[in-house]
Amino acid sequence: xxxxxxxxxxxxxxxxxxxxxxxxxxxxxxxxxxxxxxxxxxxxxxxxxxxxxxxxxxxxxxxxxxxxxxxxxxxxxxxxxxxxxxxxxxxxxxxxxxx
Amino acid sequence: xxxxxxxxxxxxxxxxxxxxxxxxxxxxxxxxxxxxxxxxxxxxxxxxxxxxxxxxxxxxxxxxxxxxxxxxxxxxxxxxxxxxxxxxxxxxxxxxxxxxxxxxxxxxxxxxxxxxxxxxxxxxxxxxxxxxxxxxxxxxxxxxxxxxxxxxxxxxxxxxxxxxxxxxxxxxxxxxxxxxxxxxxxxxxxxxxxxxxxxxxxxxxxxxxxxxxxxxxxxxxxxxxxxxxxxxxxxxxxxxxxxxxxxxxxxxxxxxxxxxxxxxxxxxxxxxxxxxxxxxxxxxxxxxxxxxxxxxxxxxxxxxxxxxxxxxxxxxxxxxxxxxxxxxxxxxxxxxxxxxxxxxxxxxxxxxxxxxxxxxxxxxxxxxxxxxxxxxxxxxxxxxxxxxxxxxxxxxxxxxxxxxxxxxxxxxxxxxxxxxxxxxxxxxxxxxxxxxxxxxxxxxxxxxxxxxxxxxxxxxxxxxxxxxxxxxxxxxxxxxxxxxxxxxxxxxxxxxxxxxxxxxxxxxxxxxxxxxxxxxxxxxxxxxxxxxxxxxxxxxxxxxxxxxxxxxxxxxxxxxxxxxxxxxxxxxxxxxxxxxxxxxxxxxxxxxxxxxxxxxxxxxxxxxxxxxxxxxxxxxxxxxxxxxxxxxxxxxxxxxxxxxxxxxxxxxxxxxxxxxxxxxxxxxxxxxxxxxxxxxxxxxxxxxxxxxxxxxxxxxxxxxxxxxxxxxxxxxxxxxxxxxxxxxxxxxxxxxxxxxxxxxxxxxxxxxxxxxxxxxxxxxxxxxxxxxxxxxxxxxxxxxxxxxxxxxxxxxxxxxxxxxxxxxxxxxxxxxxxxxxxxxxxxxxxxxxx
Lengths: 99, 834
Fold this sequence. Notes:
The structure holds two protein chains of two kinds. By secondary structure, chain A is α/β, with parallel strands linked by helices. Chain A is 36% helix and 28% strand. A five-stranded mixed sheet of chain A has the order 3-2-1-4-5. In chain A, a hairpin with a 2-residue loop joins strand 2 and strand 3. In chain A, helix 1 crosses helix 4 (90-98). The longest helix of chain A is centred in the first third of the chain and has 15 residues, at 15-29. The model of chain A has no long low-confidence stretch (mean pLDDT 93). By secondary structure, chain B is an alpha/beta fold. In chain B, 42% of the residues lie in helices and 15% in strands. Chain B is built from 29 helices and 26 strands. In chain B, the strands form four sheets. Chain B has an eight-stranded mixed sheet with strand order 5-12-11-7-8-9-10-6. In chain B, strands 19-18-17-16-15-14-13-20 form an eight-stranded parallel sheet. In chain B, strands 21, 22, 23, 24, 25 and 26 form a six-stranded mixed sheet that branches. In chain B, helix 15 packs parallel to helix 16 and helix 25 (702-715) crosses helix 26. The relative contact order of chain B is 0.07. Chain A binds chain B through residues 9-11, 13-18, 20-22, 25, 38, 40-42, 84, 87-88, and chain B through 735-736, 738, 740-741, 746, 748, 773-774, 792-793, 796-797, 799-804, 806-808.
């Protein structure tokens, strides 16, 4: 499965990156392809391109705030969870995404 | 017609006691009538220090001195020189509270729900002790109730009390040092105040007893001072009170209730307090001061700061009057006192005590070793001194020696030259106080702004360009020989004693000076005194000499740059004249090039070169001073260890390269000037270092953990404002918990309290509740402090990297497995790419 997604938390200092790292780790372990964009205090990093989004089977938003440039994901299947859930239970999030 | 001199007041604290006393000294000796006034207001007799300060001449106020009488022209000239010399004041800021800052309660105490009594912060630091309440009663209520024994008898009583009080102050002055000595000197001058004494005399003549007259006159004077607009002058009322207490004590009036006997660490609480009271109590037992409406520039507060005693002022009246003795904690930095602190509060502040101890040891370790830069180059950090007490403080403060011992004080303002015996005694005490470290005695530098009445120096049109320093030596050769002989005698048996001439212009002067030293030594040797020949050096204060060091190397063993005079002669601008003082720019390329050349010429000839002007004392200048190629700097004060610590963070080769580039390509220096090329404070050590890691933290709560880790940074010299750093950490914590889960927390902030990115790492054997997302307590905390001045991105990247690592069990396991701080430092450095 090809997964893309965005992580973002209110301060954008740590949890944004922990969520991204955790989802990447779990997805790779399960044999998925994944690219996570972080929207943190350093701005948007690892930004998803139109092609990334187009080719993805599913989009994961692990966010506690609004996603920036949300229009990029119109028409895609989006799973929305909180940042904490992505850190605590990344496999659960992935299961929902593939379901 | 009197001669009237007009000025604009450019003193930071206005025309206060010290400048007023210098004017009074000149007025006393003059046959003319000298008066001072704020332009457009009433005049005051210049001989009365108290009347002059009561004029309330503030910074920026126009003011004038009028002189009328026989020696009008000469006295006017003297006064003009004095005012233009800025009264010898330096413009350096002591970094203490000059303006009131509001009291705050530390976030940690707010979280713990601790009740405190707030007051304006006045002297930094934390103290613990028992509250001891000191009552203040009016003087007039304390004098004995008796009848006047007649005007003559009461006058005689006053006269003998004044003599006793004067002697008492002088005795204590000789034993005191630093601020306390300055203070006593000011009191000594005020004791002779003509206006105050006239008022006392008047009251005695009116039928009062001497005691009553002193008490009432002092109260009346105090009222007058308290009405002044300037806080600084209002505060002198306490000094007048002190004087009255001195005089009344000499008459047998009892004041023991003012200075209670302390039986252990004590926090003194009083509505008012005089410096005399603080000087009388056992200083080692004073843990803090809680006072009423007392100003931040009052002598008692200045004294408290110099003694390192925390203090708050403007405490609530109810507390000042409560008189309930109890154990208490005072914080003079934040401005509060907490009576009956709970066990939890005591525990929290125990962390400060431990951090303070580590800090002291840390700095002392720099003080004990010779000054060295990061790349291992030796750079001596000496100190300037003018008394044996100064020398002792400087050496124990970590100085490598005394780069300038001023001897003028033995001559200035005196009617007769000092005897050889007095000189030998003074210099021997200095050599002893230096405890084997080098001492450079500068022979008397008299003339210009430093008058010595017994020399009867002729008035000059332009004293700064006239006969001063070494230029006076041939004419006053006996005086010089006596001094040289005294220094040589004091140096016998000691090593490392050197002698240096001021204001040398040409090689002939220096050759002659050296001959005088050698002749004196020969004479003493003939008399049986065996001693090593003194090293003979010279000050470089005249541009013609500094530019031509090679001409002197035959006659001088060493050189010391006197940048105060060198600067004003180089730029042809009087540093004491506010209108042109800013023209003297020590960081001007031309001036730096002059000094660099002088240092290179000395090095080429194998001669030692130091610097003893104010330029050497400014902490921010250190990278430039190191880059100039000097062997030594001699600084004011006793902060040798701190300077050596700053030095240890600088790289000499890098400083030299940057300075050379600034001199060679001035166009490359930006608007911030030469100093901006060097950045701030030098390299503060790597962000992660062994000494910032503690694997056995004692904290049991989040408040304690943060304080303990801030204490690690303070103890290792990464911050000198731990309170501010802690508040910044808590401010960040308030937005979102920094507990990241997995037993890790990363409290962090951008702050003015550090100069370089620093990470304190603590392992918490007592798991700490941190409000983490996963509900797990914290086992490892990494406190990240980032200087506000640097780009936030670097700091965010570190946090992001750390956050990503935490997700991986291998990383967490490796952190847990690290058995010592070295191993953990290495792991974190590698993983976080720091």
